[in-house]
């Protein structure tokens, strides 16, 4: 199981992946989940994102809403902030623990991100209160067709292992 292989630092784990030549989408996503789970175990919200361009990791980030007291500090936005220091992000790929919310999806589209690979969709997250469907509905933003490829990959852990048994806001 994913949790049994978890090192102390999510950053170390992500750095170890960059040593592998040509990681697969699944490997990048699994590292994103490790980072999200580590952050959750440290008391943060259970979300992480990696931003990769041309096979190179430009940024790894976690959701910092609780720590910063800032509702815009989502993992995808944190990764965009960090990666934008390296130049254009056009065609880059984002790996996210969950389906992007409307705010994050808009920022990803505006920055030319080529695709998003994620583990858990809104239906998976809903039982734990981490569902952004109502935001999409209120904004009248249909996801069909999606504004960029949004690709759900299989997760090696169940949603409850990442989202469950934790108070959230």
UniProtKB/TrEMBL annotation:
Q: Answer yes or no on keyword Hydrolase.
A: yes
One Pfam family, short name? dCMP_cyt_deam_1
PROSITE patterns to which the protein is assigned, alphabetical: CYT_DCMP_DEAMINASES_1, CYT_DCMP_DEAMINASES_2
Query: What Gene3D superfamilies does the record tag this protein with?
Result: Cytidine Deaminase, domain 2
Q: Name one GO molecular function term.
A: tRNA-specific adenosine-34 deaminase activity
Top EC class, one word: hydrolase
Residues forming the CMP/dCMP-type deaminase domain are: 23-133
Q: What is its EC number?
A: 3.5.4.33
Keywords for the protein's UniProt record, in alphabetical order = Hydrolase, Metal-binding, Zinc
Tell me the superkingdom of the source: Bacteria
What this protein is called in its record is Nucleoside deaminase
* Taxonomic source organism: Aeromonas eucrenophila
